[in-house]
Write a structure and sequence with these properties.
Length: about 375
Amino acid sequence: MRIFLIVAALAAGCDATQAHKAAPDLAQIARPTPPPAFQPSDLPRIDVHTHIEPGALPRAIKLLGSHHIVHIINLSGGSPGGDGLEETLAEANHVGHTTVFVNPDFREIKKGAGYGARMAAKIKVGHDLGARGVKISKGLGLGYLDAKRQLVAVDDKALDPVFEMAGKMGMPIAIHTGDPKAFWKPPTPDNERFDELSVHQSWSFFGAPVSWDDLYGQFERRVARHPKTIFIGVHFGNDPEDPVRVAQMLDRHSNLYIDTAARVPEIGRVDANHDAARLRAFFEKYQDRILFGTDVGVGNAAEDLMLGSTGATPPGPSDVTRFFESTWRWFETNDQAIPSPTPIQGRWTVDGIGLPREILEKVYSKNAMRLLGIKLD
Ligand SMILES: [Zn+2]
């Protein structure tokens, strides 16, 4: 047998021309087949962080529905009494698949003392109309001024009734405090978020009267003051740059949850504070307190579309595809160097954390269903 093999090998090698001719075919056979195109899991997703303009809900549901999102939370419900809440709720009831959050009416602050109680009363009206949670924007702490033209702090005592009312009504408060730390640094080309800051000069807080750390302290005092109120710290607990601090917050405050909206680029990056293994361990440990969100914004005009952030020009179909595909790949695979879902949020790629299906299911939908009483049909 052995001799036969040697002879056969010699025979095969004896005709150099023939061997050369056969080479392309052999090479083709030997070439590794490319990996199959990424297929996201079939799990239903609830997006807890969207901003939908009145009138644009059908378009939003169609867009998100074509990317596995079966239910959305519209955080931009407005306030009752002429600020859009009634209209937003009516449309949500008509179109379905939507939960609406009410926004506190911060215009009350300008009207003077007692604003907290007046705002709380409107939260109650919002609840009775059908709003299921409260959303507070980063304007609190960074933009809203009192009658003396001073910034109103996130932990302003006079606002306590708003947070107490939400707790009493069983309405979680999604709260955005601060912004990326790079927004407090000079908006120069060496700033890691320069692409965004050069398009949106007003997003820079360089030289702002309040520091990032002051704001975060205000946020923590607010969460600590209302243990019976559920808080959703949006954008990965308002500190995606520092998952260790977010973990400490979650350990200290059992009433705190977080969402992932618009921060996959931040938490998925590989740097001194982040790597895929550590983020996976974070998701394993806090799997019951993390909610999936996108920060997609949809308006009535075709160009009114935000995918976590906005650039100089509106996003096109390829941006939409990349946004969702990179997001699902990040959650579901261990792929490395995945294109950023939102490249304007930093010129780096992200490494996937490959969550197991049981955890994905919680983050994608089960946690939101439990927290907000959502039933999927
Ligand atoms: Zn948002």
